[in-house]
Design goal:
Blueprint: E1 5-10, H1 13-28, E2 37-41, H2 44-50, H3 53-64, E3 67-68, H4 69-76, H5 80-92, E4 96-103, E5 107-114, E6 118-122
Parallel strand pairs: 1-2, 1-6
Antiparallel strand pairs: 3-5, 4-5
Amino acid sequence: MKKTKVEIKSESTKQFFDRLRSHARAMDRGEKLPAGITISFEDPLEMLSVLTVERLRLLRQIKQETQQISVLARSLKREVRAVSRDVLLLEKAGLVKTSYANNPGHGRMKLVEPVAQEYKLVANL
């Protein structure tokens, strides 16, 4: 996995477009942008609805190593269905990615891995 950084932040629509225009101007000048991914939420409460305590625990767990959903559920002491729902939501938000691998004698298994090694949370009220 690359040493990508993900910044998860709350920002207004104006701030979002100002940031994009600033990046575009920098690229027009031939400047390199720092590597990383920014995921923004307009409302800090929406950000907190995605980043619940249990989902943050899940992110911490997979940062250590890519894991199968059932193994992840067992290590977090949670139901497999609940972890699957959380993984789906985090994947839609761009915070994790999943893949399938052969599981000899059992078909295929779904693996969960982080999109980055570092996640930075920023909330502005």
